[in-house]
Specification:
The chain has 155 residues and is mostly helical. The chain contains 6 helices and 3 strands. Strands 1-2-3 form a 3-stranded antiparallel beta sheet.
Length: 155
């Protein structure tokens, strides 16, 4: 609701600045003051913790949430776009692609494969997703006062 109100009031650079400020507040400052939890994590009785289980620092929370909500969605959208190009090149017989067809197929298969392998490598080698590995954090449970590791390597 607040987003729609801002769109009607603001435009251009002010809208982008307001969006970035709201995003930074929600995903970096709120977890810092809420014991490592975003609103969704708080509802599910979870929090972001450092790898050793202690409270995660500001930089760790910022890096984790930047990768999780900034970088990973971009990679997912690009992978979907490239997968769409691959599908289009495979089913479109009426278009004259020439040599570009092979290039488009190779490129559109490459990017989603690399993204998938990046996530798989991180999960297999480190026992967690890339955003947790790169920020040295883990998602832990706060239910009933116990900290139980949800994701992360076996200890």
């Amino acid at each position: 609701l607040l987003t729609f109100a801002l769109i009607r009031i603001l435009s251009g650079k002010k809208l982008i600045l307001a969006f970035l400020l709201m995003t930074f507040t929600f995903f970096a400052l709120l977890p810092l003051f809420a014991g490592g939890s975003t609103a969704g994590q708080w509802i599910l009785h979870l929090r972001t913790a450092a790898e050793n289980g202690e409270k995660a620092g500001f930089l760790q929370i910022f890096i984790r949430n930047f990768i999780l909500y900034g970088l990973e969605p971009v990679i997912a959208v690009l992978s979907g776009g490239f997968a769409g190009i691959l599908l289009m090149t495979l089913i479109s017989n009426d278009l004259d692609w020439g040599g570009f067809r092979i290039f488009a197929m190779a490129l559109s298969a490459f990017f989603p494969s690399v993204a998938f392998l990046w996530v798989l490598h991180s999960q297999m080698r480190y026992g967690c997703l890339p955003h947790d590995h790169l920020s040295h954090t883990r998602l832990v449970s706060r239910k009933s006062g116990e900290i139980t590791e949800i994701t992360g390597p076996e200890q």
